[in-house]
Amino acid sequence: MRIRGLRKVYGGFAAVDGIDLDIHHGETFALLGPNGAGKSTTVEILEGYRSRTAGEVDVLGVDPAHGGRDWKSRLGIVLQSGGETGLLTVREVLRHFAGLYPNPRPVDEVIAAVGLEAKANTRVAKLSGGQQRRVDVALGIVGRPELLFLDEPTTGFDPEARQQFWELIRSLKAEGTTILLTTHYLDEAAQLADRAGVIAAGRLLDVGGIDEIGGEAARVPLVRWTDAAGEPHEERTDEPGLLVASVVAELGREPDGLEIVRPTLEDVYLDLVRSVTAIDGTTVGADDIAGAVGSQEAVA
Ligand SMILES: Nc1ncnc2c1ncn2[C@@H]1O[C@H](COP(=O)(O)OP(=O)(O)OP(=O)(O)O)[C@@H](O)[C@H]1O
């Protein structure tokens, strides 16, 4: 998937403001960003559901603005607000959708993969919110997609369902499926994605490997301890062991309140996004972002 200079303007407002991005075949890519950043707009353009104002987009070798039925059958889409309701049962709705694809997965296999065996004969409208979301996921994968779009797929899932979903995504990835995931759960992105992009105010702030994004400096461990006088200290260091050893030597005993904290993807993400977010919580303009983050890392 290749995106160059993508823009989407609503009225005078640029929701997507010049995005360049490549997503490689077979990778799982997480698109991260605060509410209103432009994630869904970008994803919907890639899915062919939304027109773009400017830029070039290539998805599985096709411009989504002109993607026909064959192209669509190669995609799997889990929209942000699916909510497949109505009078059909889980198995019936999946059978119906499976019939629209040339090479669908067996319906019962899909039902098992999303953990809905016990509800296969229940009407979708009678399922809980989290169970309906699992139906959305099932509908996204029943066509055996080459490219799967997951827009906040696990919203409303209980912790066990989320773990089960992660296993499902790993197995799809192992089969070679390319996956574009948007999520507000940073642990989910860290668990599943090979690479991530952070977007705010329609611009990509950073793109990189899930263990690299934000740069090395953002991942330096933080050591916290309390000294003999009861004063709290914290220091960032690449050599936390040596720092702890020197603190122990100085105190002559185990330090109180000792902690070594390694920044998580969530910490790194929050640092990135806060650097371009105004104090009142509104995201600043695109020109300010360009100044704040400097040059973006190019992706292959
Ligand atoms: N049809 C529309 N008309 C006008 N503005 C829109 C339209 N759709 C989206 N927007 C605006 O574009 C911006 C980006 O919205 P988008 O839904 O892409 O954000 P998002 O990153 O997916 O947010 P969230 O995390 O809340 O889902 C928002 O400011 C939104 O209000």
Give a description of the structure.
This protein has 300 residues and is α/β, with parallel strands linked by helices. It has a domain at 221-262. The protein is built from ten helices and twelve strands. The protein has helices at residues 39-46, 69-72, 90-98, 107-113, 129-141, 159-174, 186-192, 240-251, 265-274, 286-293, and strands at 2-10, 13-22, 28-32, 54-58, 75-78, 147-151, 178-182, 195-200, 203-209, 222-226, 232-236, 256-261. The strands form three sheets. A six-stranded mixed sheet has the order 5-6-7-3-8-9, with helices on both faces. It has a three-stranded antiparallel sheet with strand order 2-1-4, covered by helices on one side. Strand 1 (2-10) and strand 2 (13-22) form a beta hairpin. Helix 3 crosses helix 4 (107-113). It is globular. The termini are close together. The model is unreliable at 283-300 (pLDDT under 50). Bound molecules: adenosine-5'-triphosphate. Adenosine-5'-triphosphate (ATP) binds at residues 10, 15, 33, 35-41, 80. Residues 1-226 form the ABC transporter domain. This is ABC transporter ATP-binding protein. It is found in: Cell membrane. It is a peripheral membrane protein. It comes from Agromyces allii.
Secondary structure topology:
Layout: E1 2-10, E2 13-22, E3 28-32, H1 39-46, E4 54-58, H2 69-72, E5 75-78, H3 90-98, H4 107-113, H5 129-141, E6 147-151, H6 159-174, E7 178-182, H7 186-192, E8 195-200, E9 203-209, E10 222-226, E11 232-236, H8 240-251, E12 256-261, H9 265-274, H10 286-293
Parallel strand pairs: 3-7, 3-8, 5-6, 6-7
Antiparallel strand pairs: 1-2, 1-4, 8-9, 10-11, 10-12
Helix pairs in contact: 3-4
The structure holds adenosine-5'-triphosphate.
The site of adenosine-5'-triphosphate has 11 residues, from helix 1.
Membrane topology: Peripheral membrane protein
Domain ABC transporter: 1-226
Subcellular location: Cell membrane
